[in-house]
Amino acid sequence: MSKDSIQYGQLVEQALRGVVRDVLSRVAREGLPQPHHFYITFRTDHPGVGLAASLRERYPTEMTIVLQHQYWDLQVDDETMAVTLSFNNQPQRIVIPFAALKVFADPGVEFGLQFTIEPPPEENLAETVPLLAGRDREAPVRDHAGDDVAEPADEAASGGGAQIVSLDRFRKR
Q: How confident is the model at residue 118 (pLDDT cuts 50, 70, 90)?
């Protein structure tokens, strides 16, 4: 088999991470319309992830969050998303580089993406954490009632009925 010097797989996953970024940017501006809600699984050990020490200890490699009823100050830029969630009635800011994403699912409309290719390491990703988390701009605060976080659960792992798109099925073996 020939060497893929164009790296189509990485290009496709980069484009799909852009879809997630665009969806979250829209939700940050306009709010989260029904029936949409998101399960977002990410690598907590990825460079640039901003997470409280207690959460990092509890979820050393992977974490799934749910954006549905209760979240605040969702911010999105080209490389990262940041959101405040409540853990044991304590607000915690989480910063997630899009390169750390493993799964993005919207069970409300049976849509999901699974990322399988490790993106190339980016230098200075840690510098993006304070820039995004420390912005002094006014952001809309959305307070919704309900659950805000879930450990990797059967519904999240199975996509909650959503069809997870895996690029492996399109790759030559």
A: low
